[in-house]
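Predict structure. Input: DNA-binding PadR family transcriptional regulator, 178 residues.
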Amino acid sequence: MNSTRLFALSALARRGPLHGYAIRQAAQLDRTELWTDVKPGSLYNALKRMTEEGLVRVARTERDGNPPERTVFEITAAGRAELVAQRDAALADVRLLPDPVDLALQFTPDLSPDELTTAFTARRRTVADRLAQFERERETAAPDLVGLEPLIFEHCVARLRAELAWHDDVLDRLKETT
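Output follows.
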């Protein structure tokens, strides 16, 4: 499953022929960097590869005013089949991304409980800040969300709240050792 490919194909399927910059703007508008590993800058390379594979084709080039010409892409029948395959793979794929803190915990015997408490308090504050940011983003985006899109925000908020709870548990255990 390739998130960038899934996003680009879905943008073309939903919105029709688009140039790379419009797909990049859609990624920024959808705030994909908050809830997926899609990087807007990687969309151009993905479009090039998918063109070579026959998943998208060049519909035309256009120039609006003085900017350089833009290549407009459209999804092909093979691209629609790939979109379904990518979507289905994403729905079946369960990922728990590695967090470097888990590795770091193995190498903390030289730290005092106070030092660990300081580090985890700072980490907890960062997670809480991200949760607050995400909740603000959700509130801002709410009027424009359609269909199941609110579930994306709910999923991210639930994961951040779980991360906060884990940090609270770590801090409670560290208190017991002092």
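The chain is about 65% helix and 10% strand.
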